[in-house]
Amino acid sequence: MDGPDVGGDQAFLYMHTKRDRKTRRPVFGTDRTRSEHKVSSRGKDLSRLVLSVSESRKRARFQPALLSHQHLIDFSPTQNWSRCWSCDLPVRADWKVCPSLECRADLTRELSERGREGKAASTAAAQSSARHRSEELSDEEVEFEMMKEGESDEGESGKGQQEREDDQESFSDLELDETKYRKLSQPRAQNGLSSHSMSEGEPWCLRINDEEWNLEYRKQHAKVGKKIFNNMVATSKYNLYNFLPVNLYEQFSRLANIYFLIISILQLFTSLSPTSRYSTAGPLLLVVSANMIREVWEDSARHRDDREVNNRYAHVLPADEEEELCAWKELVVGTMVKVGKDEPLPADVVVLCSSEEGGACYIDTCDLDGETNLKLKSSVAFPPGQAGESAVRKMKAELEYEAPNKRLYTFLGKLRMGKEEIAVDNESVLLRGAVLRNTKWVIGVVVYAGRQTKIMMNNKKGKLKRSNVEHSTNRILAGILLFELAMCCIGTIGHAIWASGKNSATWYMPYLENESNGEKAAIWLSYFILLNNYVPISLYITMELVKLGQKFLMDNDLDMYHEATDTPMTSRTSNLNEELGQIQQIFTDKTGTLTRNEMEFRKCYIGSSSYGFGTTEIGLAAAAKQKEGGEGGGGGGGRGERREGGEGEEEKYADRRRAQIFPDAKCSFDDYRIVERMAEGHREAAEIRDFLLLLSVCHTVVPEGNGDGARGERAGEEERFQILNVNKFNSARKRMSVVCRTGSGELLLLCKGADNVMLERLKMEEEERKRVERVLHGYAMEGLRTLVLGKRRLSEEQWSKWNEAYKAASTSLVDREEEMMRAAEMIEQGMRLVGVTAIEDKLQEGVPATIKKLRKARMRMWMLTGDKMETAENIGFACNLLHDNMNIERISVDSLARAKEEVKRLSQAWGGREDKGGKERALVVDGASLLHIFAAADEDGGGGGGGGGSEEAALLREFVEVARGCKAVIACRVSPDQKRQVVTVMRREEGGPLSLAIGDGANDVPMIMEAHVGVGISGNEGMQAVRSSDYAIAQFRFLEKLLLVHGRSNYKRIAVVIAYSLYKNCFFVTSLFFFSFYSGFTAAALYDSLMIAGFNIFWSSMGIIAYGVLEQDVSSSSSLLYPQLYSSGQQRLDFNGRVLTEWILHAILHAVICFFVIARTFLGSIVEEEGREMGLGPQGTAILQALVIAVNLKLLIITKHLTLWSCLFYSIGIVLFILGGSVHR
């Protein structure tokens, strides 16, 4: 496909290599003259390279030479230049994509190192490139020529030159980066959406109010294997067609089930089995069927939910027809839908109009992410006269947009109406599942439906976590299998010796001497079948039933029920129940996890005064620490600032009722000087007014009701502000700002953000800066969260210039979010300080006591937070994470070399992983230091060990050793990805301890999913953490019982369940092997086939299930009172090779006693009335009855918490054996 024609028979590309002599800046601008598309330049002796391509030749091969408007070439000597690896076009080093419209190659993949400096090098490289391409394409007419700047350029009008210089001068008043402005303010390419600007796959297209075209478009997509689905969704795991294959595949992916399947095949299709054909196949079929029933029961609920959702009704607007109802599942891409107030969105929809003036609408995403605050969205920005319901119903337009993808917060597209194009971004997209609020109706067009909606594409299951005990069990079963194979070999050798005829017992069987090798080898297979139950067939199903019972007890524990929010504890998986009893390190978020995430305005700094009295829990802890350490000052509400009078005199201004015009019992602000000074016209009254107005205007709170702009009310007067631009907050910017117009017509930039990003953007004297820093430090010592407020006045000319860049960025189809950030950066400079807010986020109830007990349980604690180091450290003292008897070290560096020095110093000073008496260790490290320390982890893909022997890898390993020796580590100023990285590094190191991550927000999801066990808190930051977790609780304090009581008990129970299962099967099968001494090692079965099949399923399984659910070695209160008891799981004292060996030896010993005592007593002595022996039935039944009683008594003996239910289940096995024996007879 040919690229766009840029004018006439020839396309000219001009690239200048000098800067304007007067301004010393790169000169930019665009012109279209006659048949040329050129980048004009200013100054004398400028060289230009002209590429002339004949229209009559194959233009398609030369389209890489055509440039997009987004990249205007500036060959300044100071720039670092190279060449595109694909089309050899000169490109700048900081570009990510080739500017050629047809090439669009990824420059981050391969950039040549041929940088050029100066005009001479630039010209030489261009000529070399031209000759090279001319040689390659000799059949084309390509002509390169160097041209001196002629009189035509110098003859441009002086008026245009003066206007350009005036623009530059006026715009420079804003202190903007002109390079950024040049890139932002240029018109965008109009030739469609490139593959690089869009997401994976070709862009999609639909036509509004043209159902026939949309239907044909969907058919064409289906023909090439790129089906566009309807709106039906299926969250169920199985359907009628895939249930058997999928379920059987999952069940037989377990080694044990494959093993028993092989045994069953040998029994069913060969004559080698010494037992019934169905003695193994029957129990295996029962176990597999039970699992299938459980899966069907769980999946049936998903099917019910899917049917309910798919059969909901939506209002659709067919072209030129009346509104009608349509089931959700029948909606398709291109359908026009109308959604009413409080109705959920049926699919991903681009809003075309709404009932609100300006096309605004509000949505509630609580069902998607749990966040209860409303989100403001807007319809597509149509030109005047083309918006509204009637216009949309008649509209003929084409929407081109990115193919389905998982990115929830980005959308790129454009709507064509004739020759006009309108950019469409995420602000106009409503996602499936969101609910329309505070808006009567919206009309939109479906862009993604069904499984291709963004929510459904993100609805992926997390990685399957298997417990450490389960992994160990698989290895143990492999060892048991080897033991069984050895026993088969022993039996085969015994039979060979017995059949050799060298003993008196075989004198009457002379045919044994002629037994072939094949017949002797068949004995090995017979033993393999006979002894197959060394591997317990019921182990996995028993463990699943036990874990389900444990899950039920945890979910219904009233001690972990939060009555205030009606939130019970929820186990989202049962696979990791025993893992809760082996945790050695905990990674916790702070906000909303340790604290309540209920922000309360406590103090503020305005002008030169700090307002607000009292202190916080964290401030009290810091003050106590300073008092004990003999330190003075430091905390207490910014003591560095000037106050009115002494401390005692200030307290008289503390009156909550007078300080709050609208009293709020939840607000503790008590300084009424603000109100008085505003009323009295104090010297700080104007600053107080600016402070309050900034907080009133610069926010993203969605109010109830209607209204334009923002409205403030003071002293009975109403003041309106028109919001012109909003630079939104994100984790990278750490601030937000608005440009607004006051009622008097004044233009203001209002900004608020974190202190570390705001202070560098404020204009203030050094003395004032130090005073503000002291105030911030004082607030931080009290654990208060701070925001710095700034303000700037703008002229109309300044704003209009910047607004062009802002609009260009907001409609960019390439890296729109980054462009918006660059635009915001341009204007958020040179602001004046308005004030500082200090907000308290109180600790949750019981957090200090919980952390104290977890530390007593030998758990190492990591607190990962975005707070300042001082704030984080004081919170650590307040919540008992840190204490005065700790040796606390800090790492805060800005370079890799300094990081190495600090880590090496600590490694040498502490020398070892564990504490060796004396003070406990604690470490406080900031995110910038972790960035250098984890460099090796980045290169190694997030692994913990670091690759190779590089210095970075050595630094990482040394840091891990230092951190392992600390009882507490606080990581401050960390990003969500750094949280995940910390967990990854500390988890994946060889021999690493089991880790638990707990958090409440979406930014905690990466670390929750990375840890061995993830716990989500259903707090105020949504439900994403809960949905990604393994266990969910409402308060941090519930973690105490979850780990110390349930976790510890679950680990001990599961350890006994596995050991007992191996014990009873070893007991049972060994007795079968002992009969070989009486049967000539012929692999004859002592027990009846029904008895063999029933042993694992009925006779010995009921009691162990009850034990695994109900057993308690100590009471719950004792587990909480003595957290040290938890260490048995951390040290794996209940499940290890020594313990399992003891169980196996006990099984063999008990088999010897039961078998040989009963065999010597009964074998051969039970006869019928006629004097004939009754065979092996009575003897086998007697031995098996003794065995069943012994294994159940063994369980009774080891039980420490005997209940009526336990006794009932323990006796069921014996009763069932007696009843089964009677029926069998």
From TrEMBL:
Major localization class: membrane
Enzyme active site: 589 (4-aspartylphosphate intermediate)
Binding site for ATP: 589-591, 729, 752, 785, 865-867, 973, 979, 1003-1004
Claim: Aminoacyl-tRNA synthetase is one of the keywords in the record: no
Catalyses which reaction(s): ATP + H2O + phospholipidSide 1 = ADP + phosphate + phospholipidSide 2
A Pfam entry, by short name: Cation_ATPase
Protein name, entry field: Phospholipid-transporting ATPase
Organism: Guillardia theta (strain CCMP2712)
